[in-house]
Amino acid sequence: MVQSSGGVRLRAPSDGGFYPLSRHSRLKKTAHIRGGRPYMKVLVTGGAGFIGSHLVEALLGRGDEVWVIDDLSTGREENIAHLMDDPMFHWNYGTVLDRDLVGEVIAQCDIVFHLAAAVGVAYVVKNPLNSLINNIRGAEVVLEQACAGMKKVVLFSSSEVYGKGNGLPLKEGDDRVLGPTAVSRWSYATGKAVDEFLAFAYWREKGLPTVIVRCFNSCGPRQTGDYGMVVPRLVTQALTGQPMTVYGTGTQSRCFSYVGDIVTAVLLLSEHPEAVGQVFNIGTDEEITIEGLAEKIKELTKSSSPIVHVPYEKAYDGGFEDMKRRVPDLRKIRSLVDYKPSLSLDELLVLTINHICRRLDIATPQGLPCASSSELFATASVKKA
Ligand code: UDP
C-alpha cells in the first residue's frame, strides 16, 4: 500500500507496523549553513568504536559537525585520535547512561546515531549484567532525550535479534527464535530486541522518527578480536604464528560485510523519509563457513599456523549455543536505497590483513595486495541516493 504525506510517498512496511502520517510534520528540518552549503549537527554515541569511528569520519567528510559520546569500554581512543584537532569534531568521554550529558549534547544536534552498546559475543557472555544495563537503559536514555526535541534517531541493532533463526535468508519480519534465559548469549539478543521495541514505541506513540538497522557480521579495519570477533582473531593468530582457533566443527557459516558499506547504507537510510519507523537488515549474502574462512586467511597471510578446533564449552562458558548459519535477506534495503556491497570477501580480508599488519607493526605478507589507508577510506565515501 502506498500513501502520500506532504509530497513524500510512503510504502506500508511489509513486516507489520504503520505510518502515523500526521506526525511527519514534526520532523525537524536542518538549516545550518557553512561556507555556503548546508550541513547537519550529529551525535554519534559509541563514536570511538569500530563502526562508530568510520561513521564519524564519513559524516565529517561530507561536512557535518559531529559530537561523540563514548565511555571507551569497547571503543578505543586511537580510532578517533586523528580527528581531535578537527573544529567540527567534539569529543565527550562519558556514558549514554548519563542522562544530563546525553540531553545536553542532543539538544545541540539534529540527528542521533545510537551505537554505544556492549558488543561481541565473548564480551557479552563474560559481562552479562553490564551488557544488559548498558544496552537497554542506554537506548532508553537516548530515545527519551531525543524525543524531548523530536530529533531523529538511527538505532543500531544486530542480526543477533533473530536468535537461531527461522529459515534462511533472515527477513526483517521473521519470527525470532531464542534459547533459554540461562544462556547469556540470548540476553544480548533480548536486550537489542528491547531497544528495537523502544524505538518502534517512541515512533508509534510519540511520533519520534526512528530508523532501526540490523547489522550482520560487519568487519574491516579497526575491528579488534578482543571481544570475540572471528575475522580479526583469526588474522592476528595467522600473522603471529599462533594456532588459528575454529570453534566447534567450523561448519557454521556467516556473511561478512565491509564496515564502509554499512556506513554508506546507514547514511542513505538516515536521509530517506520512507525509512522512518522501519527496521532494515544490512550486510552481504556472500556466505562462508568458519573453517573455510580460516583456510582463506591462512592462504592469504601465507601463515604456517595450524588450524585447531576448540569445543564451544572451552571457548565460551558452558551451555553456549551458536547459530549454524546466518544469511540476511537484503531485499528490503535494496528496494529503498541504492545499496550494493562494494567489496568481495577476499577484498575485505586483504584490507583487514593490511590494517592488522600496520597495527602490529609487521610486514605485509608477500604477494598480498597492499591497501593504503586512503584506499581503505575511499570505498567508505558516501554516495547520495
Ligand atoms: N569463532 C571461531 N573462532 C574464534 C572466534 C569466533 O570459530 O576465535 C566462531 C564463532 O563461534 C561463530 C563465528 O566464528 O560461529 C562468528 O563469531 P563472531 O563472534 O565473530 O560473530 P557472531 O556471528 O557469533 O556474532
Structural summary, described in words:
It is a single chain. The chain is of the alpha/beta class and 385 residues long. It has a single domain, classed as 3-Layer(aba) Sandwich (Rossmann fold). The protein contains twelve helices and 17 strands. A seven-stranded parallel sheet has the order 7-6-5-8-9-10-15, sandwiched between helices. α2 (99-108) crosses α4. Uridine-5'-diphosphate (UDP) is lined by residues 121, 217, 228-230, 233, 245-247, 252, 254, 290, 322.
Helix proportion: 25-40%
- Which structural category do the helix and sheet elements fall into? alpha/beta
Q: How is the largest sheet built, in terms of strand order?
A: 7-6-5-8-9-10-15
What share of the residues does DSSP label as strand, in percent? 15-25%
Number of helices: 12
Shape: globular
Average pLDDT figure: 88
Number of domains: 1
Largest sheet: 7 strands, parallel
Q: So what's the CATH class?
A: Alpha Beta
Q: What is the strand tally? A: 17
CATH topology grouping: Rossmann fold
For the termini, the CA-CA separation is 23 Å
CATH architecture tag: 3-Layer(aba) Sandwich
Summarize the structure.
The chain has 12 helices and 17 strands.
List the helices and strands and how they pair.
Layout lengths: L1 E4 L2 E4 L20 E3 L2 E3 L1 E5 L4 H12 L3 E6 L18 E5 L5 H10 L2 E4 L6 H6 L1 H21 L3 E7 L26 H22 L3 E6 L2 E2 L10 H10 L4 E4 L5 E3 L1 E2 H13 L6 E5 L4 E3 H12 L5 E4 L1 H4 L15 H6 L8 H16 L12 H6 L7
Parallel strand pairs: 5-6, 5-8, 6-7, 8-9, 9-10, 10-15, 11-14, 12-17
Antiparallel strand pairs: 1-2, 3-4, 13-16
Helix pairs in contact: 1-7, 2-4, 4-5, 6-8, 6-11, 8-11
Uridine-5'-diphosphate binds next to helix 6 and strand 12.
